[in-house]
Amino acid sequence: MYCPHCGQPVATDAADCQSCGERLPQLTRQSDVRREAIEIAQSEGKIAAIKFYRSETGCGLKEAKEQLESLLEEEGVELPSTGCLGMLLLAASLFTCGWLWA
Ligand SMILES: [Zn+2]
Description:
The protein has 102 residues and is mostly helical. The protein has one domain. It has helices at 27-44, 46-57, 61-74, 84-101. Bound molecules: zinc ion (ZN). The site of zinc ion (ZN) has 8 residues, from loops. Zinc ion binds next to loops.
């Protein structure tokens, strides 16, 4: 995230800005963002959660992805694997149908 006072990048969990020394806004808001990011990850997937996290914190894509992944790990969140497994199941069911109809 960025300091609202001087605009310098600051650590997400820092209480004060290292550049200007101003107090950074509420950790509560940050934990809201984290919680909401987790909810989005669970309902809409990781990409959507990363987008949300970026727009809320203003950090880069790589940083957002890393932070989100460590957050999900910390919280022990299991994401439904819609990716590879879903495609495999779809392919398998198509293949089965094709085979039955052949
Ligand atoms: Zn600052």
